[in-house]
């Protein structure tokens, strides 16, 4: 947690005794908060039975995230511990990052900046394309996808096509888009952007087999989860010119890319890692028309503030016997 967040929380929760721990919560580090009545964690802390066994007084576990798969909900329930989360904080934030990636590719921003940094003001090779009048394909019209569709339609004057397992006709009318089958979206979209959760069904939703359905020269964007798109298909699409540009905030082996040194010294991890995908990702990083951000789409000051504010509200509500944002299972 960043220092400004700690100061902000200290001010807002001054009636409570607070302990900030920078380490992840594990059976080894949990002793630092052993007398806590409530704990608030991020996704890297696994709140399982082993941790809960060492927190005899805890009555509230809050997670500063939407997802709660790092918390053993059943074990909490058995101990009568309430679990709360932050249901929404970054819908607009991720949608704006999606357009940052789209515009960076369509207006060749990265190459343009590199050119001027080299001291050159020539614009040869920097010609871009307008978004107005182009077709945007939005895969998944949930909280983030609907904002992307709205920005594309109202902000940029794009024709917006969408695909979702559960189409919402009222939303389509409100945000100005049309639901179409997935293959039609791939065939007609100039920009294709993914906003589905990672499930069995969405794993490798775009892959080497359906790559030939994609409109030649499309821009591909993924800010959802890396495994929604087969990495080999992205590389093949880039090499064969199916994609004119690719913008990714998530990649399949991003955890490993972050920790390669650790991987080299930890052979046990090696077994679980898909080395082919890892190699393909290294090749992708080097492509001039591919830009990758480090899963930072959610990372804006406002989104972080919304996380902290909701966390504070969850804690205040719990200790006033008015529970909010309770995770149910
Ligand atoms: P959401 O649950 O609000 O929306 C997901 C949409 O996908 C829903 O409309 C759902 O019906 C649809 N869907 C589910 N399975 C589908 C399938 N098989 N085929 C077609 N549509 C399907 O989720 P959201 O908040 O909009 O988030 C979307 C994704 O963005 C999630 O994967 C989330 O993890 C990711 N995300 C990334 C970041 C980041 O920093 N990059 C931040 C937040 C969320």
Can you characterise this structure?
- There is one protein chain.
- Strand 1, helix 2 (49-52) and strand 2 form a beta-alpha-beta unit.
- By secondary structure, the chain is α/β, with parallel strands linked by helices.
- The chain has helices spanning 3-12, 49-52, 73-78, 91-106, 109-117, 143-155, 169-175, 182-188, 231-239, 254-258, 260-264, 267-270, 275-285, 301-319; strands at 38-41, 60-63, 82-84, 135-139, 159-163, 177-179, 191-194, 218-222, 243-248, 290-292.
- The mean pLDDT is 93.
- Helix content is 38%, strand content 13%.
- The strands form two sheets. It has a seven-stranded parallel sheet with strand order 6-5-4-7-8-9-10, sandwiched between helices. Strands 1-2-3 form a three-stranded parallel sheet.
- Helix 9 packs parallel to helix 13.
- The structure holds nicotinamide-adenine-dinucleotide (NAD).
Using DSSP, what is the number of strands? 10
Structural class: alpha/beta
List of distinct ligands in this structure: nicotinamide-adenine-dinucleotide
Give the strand order, joined by hyphens, for the main sheet. Answer: 6-5-4-7-8-9-10
Rg on CA atoms, Å: 22 Å
Question: What letter string, H or E per element, gives the SSE order?
Answer: HEHEHEHHEHEHEHEEHEHHHHEH
Strand fraction band?
5-15%
What kind of oligomer do you see?
Answer: single chain
Low-confidence stretches: none
**Tally of contiguous helical segments:** 14
Global morphology: elongated
The CA-CA distance between the termini, in Å, is: 28 Å
Give the biggest sheet: 7 strands, parallel
């Amino acid at each position: 947690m960043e220092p400004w967040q700690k100061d902000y929380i200290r001010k807002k929760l001054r009636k409570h005794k607070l302990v900030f721990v920078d380490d992840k919560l594990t059976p080894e580090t949990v002793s630092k908060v052993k007398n806590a009545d409530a704990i608030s964690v991020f996704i890297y802390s696994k709140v399982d039975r082993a941790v809960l066994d060492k927190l005899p007084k805890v009555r509230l576990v809050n997670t500063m995230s939407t997802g709660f798969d790092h918390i053993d909900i059943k074990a909490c329930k058995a101990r009568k511990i309430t679990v709360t989360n932050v249901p929404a904080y970054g819908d607009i934030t991720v949608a704006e990052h999606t357009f940052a990636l789209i515009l960076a590719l369509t207006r060749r921003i990265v190459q343009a900046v590199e050119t001027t940094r080299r001291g050159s003001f020539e614009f040869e090779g920097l010609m871009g394309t307008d978004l107005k009048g182009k077709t945007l394909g939005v895969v998944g019209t949930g909280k983030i996808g609907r904002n992307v569709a709205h920005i594309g339609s109202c902000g940029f004057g794009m024709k917006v096509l969408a695909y979702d397992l559960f189409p919402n006709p009222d939303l389509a009318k409100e945000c100005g888009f049309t639901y179409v089958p997935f293959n039609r979206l791939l065939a007609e979209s100039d920009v294709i952007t993914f906003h589905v959760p990672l499930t069995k069904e969405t794993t490798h939703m775009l892959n080497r087999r359906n790559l030939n359905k994609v409109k030649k020269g499309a821009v591909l964007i993924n800010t959802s989860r890396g495994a929604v798109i087969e990495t080999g298909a992205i590389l093949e699409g880039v090499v064969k010119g199916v994609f004119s540009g690719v913008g990714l905030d998530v990649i399949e082996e991003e955890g490993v890319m972050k920790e390669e040194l650790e991987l080299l010294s930890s052979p046990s991890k090696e077994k679980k890692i898909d080395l082919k995908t890892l190699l393909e990702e290294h090749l992708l990083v080097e492509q001039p028309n591919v830009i990758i951000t480090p899963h930072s789409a959610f990372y804006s000051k406002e989104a972080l503030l919304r996380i902290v504010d909701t966390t504070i509200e969850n804690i205040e509500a719990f200790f006033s016997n008015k529970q909010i944002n309770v995770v149910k299972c």
